[in-house]
Amino acid sequence: MVVFRKISVLFLFFACVSSLLSLNAQTKDSLKKGNRTDSAKLDFVGKMQAFAKVSAKRSADDFAADKATTAQIKTFEEIRRTMQKAKIYLKTNLDTTGTKTDLIAIDKDFTIAGDGVFTNKGKAQTFRNLTATAKILSELLNKANTRKAKLEVRQQDINTLRYQLDSLLSVPALFKFPGDSTTLMKYLQKIEVIAYETGPVDTTLNIASNNIQSLLNQVNMTVFKLQGSLEEIDAYQKDMVDHTFKREFPNIWHPQNFNRPLIEILDFSKTKGLLAFSFYVENNAGKMILLVLLCITSFVYLRSLKNIYVKGNLLKSDFEGQLVLRYPLLSAILIVVTLFQFIFPAPPFILNFIFWTVSCICLTVIFKGFVSAFWMRVWLFMVLFFLFAAGDNLILQASAAERWFMLITSILAVLVGALTLIKGNQEELKEKWISWSIAFMVFLEFAAVIANVFGRYNLSKTLFISGFLNVVIAILFLWTLRLINEGLLMAFNVYSAQDRKLFYLNPERVGKKAPLLFYVLLIIGWLVLLGRNFPSFDYLSKPLLTFFSEDRTLGNYTFSINNMLLFVGIMGSSVLISKIVSFFVADRQVSTGKDKNERQGIGSWLLLVRIAILCVGLFLAVAAAGIPVDRITIVLGALGVGIGFGLQTLVNNLVSGLIIAFEKPVNVGDIVDIAGQGGTMKSIGFRSSVISNWDGADVVVPNGDILNAHLINWSLAGNRKRVSIMIGIAYDSDLEKCRQLLTDILNKDQRIGKNPAPIVQFEQFGDSAIDLKIYFWTKHIGEAYATRSDLIIAITAAFKEHKINIPFPQQEVYIRNLADQSNPV
Predict the structure, then answer these.
(1) Are 477 and 525 contacting, i.e. CB atoms less than 8 angstroms apart?
(2) TM segments (predicted)?
(3) Greatest CA span in the chain, whole angstroms?
(4) Is there a contact between 466 and 534 (Cβ–Cβ < 8 Å)?
(5) Dihedrals φ, ψ of 126, to 5°?
(6) Phi and psi of 125, rounded to 5°?
(7) Neighbours of 651 (CB within 10 A)
(8) 41-86 pLDDT, tens digit each
(9) pLDDT by residue (tens digit) across 706-717?
């Protein structure tokens, strides 16, 4: 901008000099013109040609001047707009204070995280300390990178504004000056004004750019420091994996010579652990909320299931096979926390410790009074040992007191485990696999004792926590599966009429044990949770994770096995959820004293609910798998060709299903008659619907036939049906008495509607009787024929009692003897 000002001043000076020289030249030309002679006059043609050349040049100059003026005006407007944009952008102040505060906080947290790793190292690194430090540094690096990205965007925006201003001020049209001196002076004044206005903006942009660059340098230094520290920790961890059986300390009976007091170790372990926990919870707040919502949803369902069993007097006093309903809230928390803890990738140990402690408390309360006293004591001992070991695992640096604590606890655990296996009553054990986990615990704790005695601290601590964790996780998983299995079996008892089209599981195959697949998943989860305690777990699992996450190319499409499994998993879950929703909503429960014919209002919305679940699942699956939209377009195009050639009927049925779902000419539970097929609408599917006819068979009817046929829906009018009975009475009967008698009988029957009221109508004089007809409405179509039958019985009895005859057609036959006529008397 300063250069631009200098150039404008120089142009003003040269313009003044040029004006003076032009004025001098014009004066000389006027003096010469007076001395010309008439002999130098041009002829007419020459004069016209000269005039034409001068006019053409003048027109071209005028056009160029006008063009330059237009370009100059446009450029000045662009400069003003750019300056306005820059001023507005500069008003949005960069949070430099927040950035500096974050950098100070990062340095402070880095100091806390580095304690025991980069400072106060002690005699040996510990695996838990390295892991906690790596998690904290990763979070700090993410924060620093976030600030760095914001600064880089700000820097880029400012550089873009400066570039736009510089490019506009260097437009060639700005340096094309008008020939008229007055116009030139005005133009130069305009340039000077523009230069004056752009100067402060340019200076402010320069200052802002320098400040941002200064902050960016500090952030880059912090990022470099964090990345270097993480690489150093990774080297420590790799060395620990390569030397798993390395001796870190002398034998336990030798002097240890630890330099750091235990109180100081506990204090920095608490600070570092809480810091890692707070970072992780902050970044996974959404998953925490999801976990709470799942617990609430499970509790609501289990409580409603318990209410159904209580109303039906189906709940056992000892809760055998119904333990999941003993404490619905605790069962819901136990099931959800045990299963969904895997949605948290690489959590800090303190979070896992909270999950496992909550689950142990829930299971302990559920166990109370249900398992035998001996195995209850064993469980409490295992929980107590686990709490001791988990608390010790939160200590991030070695000490002599900790080594002796680990040794004594491991020896006690070996003794308790051995006595449990020897003297324990295995017949009272409800889950037999628990004895195997206790035996494995004895082995691990014995190995921990040996490693601890001979100075293998890290190996000893890993075995120490793994032994108790193995038992607790195994018991939690086994009983979680047991509770889930009980819940499924109890749901099948309540929702008795399963439909294979909606959701079906064979209760006989469910039985008292969960399916084998559940146990396979249990073992995999057990291995994952147990393996996280070993330094080599991450390095052993990396090739498998790389195999699943590695990108592969098929033609122009790039994919990974993770994306494929994610797509299949989300779609499979969507289908399963839609079927479960359909099953538990559409099926009737066991009788609880309510009207068995009660209509299910939500049943008619099942198709829309299932479509919504599947659509959301498909959208999430496509988004999560990263499938390109153009590939979906190709598939839809191919599907369109298929529809045109041979899928018209299928599409017709699918569209008809949507029309039924929205227009609702028929709902689930309605009593219908479709092309001679009468019965109750059991389900409405995508392509076809199911009608349970009066004979007990399920008739599958395509949705297109439902819309195209003459559909009779008895339920639209309230499930009523009009019934008539024809009766003939003798001619000598009292007609008013008959009417009153029939009216009383009809009014007494509670199955007959009172609005409209029953009608007794005399029809005609018959051959042998007066015909009358009874018209009445039954409250429900299902009671029509039973009501008619009972009325016939009641009317017959009443007519007999009141001596009213129901005649039947009679004919008199006269027989004449022809032989008697030939011989008259």
Answers:
(1) yes
(2) 285-302, 323-344, 350-371, 378-398, 404-422, 434-455, 467-495, 516-534, 564-586, 607-627, 633-655
(3) 188
(4) yes
(5) -110, 145
(6) -80, 145
(7) 16
(8) 546 677 777 777 877 777 777 777 777 778 878 888 888 888 888 8
(9) 777 777 777 776
Residues 108 and 144 in one domain: yes
d(CA 129, CA 543): 25
- Domain of 704, CATH number, reads 2.30.30.60
Residue that is written with structure tokens 């003297």 in the block: 423
Number of domains in the chain: 5
φ, ψ of residue 536 in degrees (nearest 5): -80, -5
Does residue 632 lie in a domain region? no
Q: Which amino acid is at 100?
A: K
Confirm whether 817 is domain-assigned. Answer: no
Residues 463, 383, single domain; the answer is: yes
User: Which residues in 688-703 are b (16+ Cβ under 10 Å) and which e?
Assistant: bbbbbeeeeeebebbb
Domain residue limits at 119: 2-28+61-242
Residues 477, 565 within the same domain? no
CB 730 within 8 A of CB 805: yes
Same structural domain, 462 and 529: yes
Sign of the torsion formed by the C-alpha atoms of 321, 327, 328 and 332 = negative
Element at 377 (helix H, strand E): helix 373-393
Cα–Cα nearest to 333, from 483, 515, 517, 489: 483
Residue whose tokens read 């018991």: 475
Residue 589 per-residue DSSP state:
P
E runs forming strands in 685-733:
688-693, 698-702, 711-713, 721-729
Answer yes or no: do 731 and 701 share one domain.
no
Tokens at 452, concatenated: 């601890």
- Whether 403 and 302 map to the same domain: the answer is yes
Q: 813 and 738 in contact (C-beta within 8 Å)? A: no
Are 436 and 303 within one domain?
yes
CA-CA distance, 728 to 773, in Å (whole number)?
9
Q: Using an 8 Å Cβ cutoff, are 582 and 610 in contact? A: yes
Question: Is the separation of the CB atoms in 582 and 690 below 8 Å?
Answer: no
Distance from chain centroid for Cα 329: 23
* Residue 295, in any domain of the structure: yes
SS3 content of the chain, % helix, strand, coil (to 5): 70, 10, 25
CB 558, CB 550: distance < 8 Å: no
Domain-located, residue 164: yes
Which of 238-247, 280-289, 519-528, 687-696 has the lowest average pLDDT? 687-696
**How many whole angstroms separate alpha carbon 424 and alpha carbon 382?**
14
What is the C-alpha separation between 7 and 11, in angstroms, rounded? 6
Task: Give the count of beta carbons closer than 10 Å to the beta carbon of residue 441.
Answer: 26
Summarised one tens digit per residue, pLDDT across range 682-696 is 777 767 778 877 777
The answer to whether 649 and 705 have CB atoms below 8 angstroms apart is no
Q: Quick check: pTM over 0.90?
A: no
Is the domain of 401 the same as that of 419? Answer: yes
Give the integer Cα–Cα distance in Å for 114 and 241.
21
What is the C-alpha separation between 473 and 524, in angstroms, rounded? 12
The token pair at 251 is 């034998």
Boundary-marking domain end, from 718, 747, 770: 718
Cβ–Cβ < 8 Å for 698, 690? yes
Determine contact, residues 90/211, Cβ cutoff 8 Å: no
Q: How large a percentage of the chain has pLDDT more than 70?
A: 80
- CA–CA distance from 583 to each of 360, 440, 495 (Å)? 33, 42, 8
Q: Which of 215, 242, 269 is the last residue of a domain?
A: 242
| pLDDT, tens only, 777-820 | 888 777 888 888 888 888 888 888 888 888 877 666 777 666 55
